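Task: encode each sequence below as structure tokens.

Item 1
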Amino acid sequence: MELPEGTLPVYWAERTAKHHRGLVRKQAGVTYDQARARGIVEQSIRKEAAGKNRPADLINIALEKVVEAGLELPGFSTFDKMASKIRTEVNA
């Protein structure tokens, strides 16, 4: 966006914030579809969990898949919780 470091958004209207998020997504070339992103995260972690046991490895693979799909990334806690849960299921 070429804004100075430390620039923070300040919005008085939620509608403006929503509009700006859309513009940022367009500029970054990503789509907002959290359900699809979570599905990709789950599928990629399940596929790799049998061969990899470190959560960081599973999260990195899932990150790559979501980025390849051109989707906005879910929060880190989403990746972390899913990796932990699925890894536990697969190891059991």
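Item 2
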Amino acid sequence: MSRKPELRGRAARLARLFPGPGSSGQAARTPFVLLVVLLLGGGLIGLLVLNSALSEGSFKQDDLQRDTKNLTDEEQALQRDIDAYSAPDALQRRARELGMVPGGDPAFLGPDGKVKGVPSAAAEQSAAQIPLVLRPPETVAQSPADTVAQAGTPAAVPTPSLTSTPTTTPGR
């Protein structure tokens, strides 16, 4: 019968770590099974955390897209209002409502100090041209037949006084 040689030093320590052909191998199998179970459990928990983070990000993205759409709609509505108020006919109507009149031909000063053109005062506005009510630009787009039908009976036209109070526009 062959006798197994006795190991010493480093070889003896390595031999103790690995089970021999005569041992059952139970001691080496338990850590391996525990390692596999821990790796699988950790992987599943990691996937669960990753899935939760992705779904949370998806909900935040949906909320941000909804907010962006609402803000874009609001921006477009405000831009339409700005365009309506800055249209030439709306500016002219508002200027007349504030008592402004169109200016005449302008006069210019040349570099030598001479006046080019004839300066003149602006024409006065008659009482018939002074509006009674401030209207938003949306109502100006109506046809003249609609405004005559809405007028019904004629109202008394007040005479403007020289010391009138300035009219204020909404939003200013």
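Check on item 2: Helices lie at 10-17, 26-85, 88-97, 137-140, 144-151. Residues 143-166 have pLDDT under 50 and may be disordered.
End of task.
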